[in-house]
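Before surveying the methods themselves, we first show a specimen of the format, giving the amino acid sequence and backbone structure tokens:

:::
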Amino acid sequence: MSKTKEKMTDQGNRSTRIRHFDRRRAKYHGLIRAATVLTVLFLQVAFIAALAYWMQTDGLKIYFVVELLSIAIVFGLVNSEAYNQTFWIVILLVLPGFGFILYFFWGSFRKDFVVNSGLRKREEEALKRLPDNKEQLEELAQVHPNKIQISNYLSKEGFPVYSNTVQKYYPIGGEELANDFVDDLKKAKHSILMEFFIVYDGKWWSEIEDVLVAKAAEGVDVRVLIDDFGSIFMDTVSMKKEMRRCGIKLELFKPINKRISSINFNYRNHQKIMVVDGTVGYTGGCNLADEYVNRIKRFGGSEWKDSMVRLEGEAVWTLTNIFLMMWEDSTGKEVEDPSVYKPRWKVEDEGFVQPFSGGPHKTPFNPVEGAYTRMISKARDYIYITTPYLVLDERLTGYLIDAAMSGVDVRILTPRIYDKWYVYMVTVSNYGKLLRNGVRIFEYIPGFIHEKDVVADDECAICGTINLDFRSMHTHHENGVFFSRTPIVDEIRDNILKSFSKSEEVTYEEWKKRPTAEKIMQWFFKLTSPLL
């Protein structure tokens, strides 16, 4: 047998071995990992409860000091802009001693020391590599004066606006997206960079995996970053070892076996990015699992509604640097020469494209929240938002209500068929204040809607990974793309309008008629909103 055939056979054996191992053990191993996480969390809470009980009985002096500290923290929270201040104030006041220890381990006052400093430095270095593109910004200001403040804001946060980028919008995860994604991977000559929250074994991932193994064997630089908690039902540890044997550099973001007792265990990487040769990039709501491209049906056979965008051209350089920033944070090592991942060919296209990202390291000035609040506040005629979860803080609620009361047509599309019942409880509980003040809410009927799109005034839009919830705005690392004066804005608008036609509008009168038991459950889960 020739060396070439031996190499191809070895590639096939390796990819088959990875898949075979995952299919046989992924669910079993995932259940063990999930059970382990729950057990450790339970033991932590039990330990904290025991410690609090001891302070109340045998450690009265310590308990007295802890209570004074709790009162001081409450006063600090009252005067702060912390997104979860109400939650922690209630915990500290209702659970004496116990609440303080919970806050010490899981509250926000230690976050700067644990999360922010290292990642902020890496982000600063990554953003220095991006062009300022002042000419594009000035051109945008001339043709797009009504929304230039949004692009100005993102530019000042370090995310430049680009032209010369071809865009393709996928209004639903399906075969077109699945096939284009794999075809672009097959064309890779130099590098493949992938970063996703969820990877799960199935037909689509098997196709992707085969290409990754083949490309690594060809000498292509293949790097894959997976959030370990998001992919908890995969045997990521064994997967990492096997992929490395195949020449694929795979890293796990905050491995749960190392981070579960850490304060930053809660800060997950929800970003979704794929870049080929520095020039073709994908991002949006889809993870790498069959339901996202409707190859399997969940929730009673209903469709899975999601969206993605494909970029080709200059703007992909920002996606690349978002990936490199998170890669370096996960590995603890700098990439030797980031310039090798620059775009390798030029394209021309109309419109303006502005990829951006954000996360807990940026709180309280998170570009993710800033982009959304500015789109809402700058809307003149309408703003339409799709989100699978509606878990709002007072600030974001205020922006939505202010826009609606100013005469803007504010519409939010959420799913009638949900994937997490407890989050749906909070979603519905948040309807009331919005409906009462003129915000219109629609529930999508045909299936679960997972897309995260925003469009305003036929002028600008966002497609990305960002849910309208606490996690996306405060505790998750997210990314999106802001589009201005480009045909994709109309495509996103038309997609959302089509979804409205397949939805039922929720009225305030209907919302008030919910059963009492349902109201009580919704109130309880709303209290825990910052943890959802």
